[in-house]
Request: fold
Amino acid sequence: MAQRRGMRITPEDIENAEDVEIVEEKDHWNTYKLKDGSVIKMKLMVRGVKRLTTKWQPDGNPIYVVNSQNVMRLGNIPKKLKAKPKPSTFEPV
Reply:
């Protein structure tokens, strides 16, 4: 449960929340080069947004609940860090 300044968000609050459609998005990746030479790219993907209809922040602003997921991509992995690929277990189509 989310909690802010003593305010408790309950499952009922989320159940009664209103879905808010995302009408614009920008896809930003954060890139991190590691000491071993690998590069990791990360981004946060928003899967959905709800606005609570029963509670507001103390200053009157609405409270949003965001369903999100972290996505990671690897790049420039040094050959010395890679293992030998294993044969596929999938049957040919």
Notes: The chain has a mean pLDDT of 91. The CA atoms of residues 36 and 81 lie 9 Å apart. Helices lie at 11-15. The longest strand covers residues 39-56.
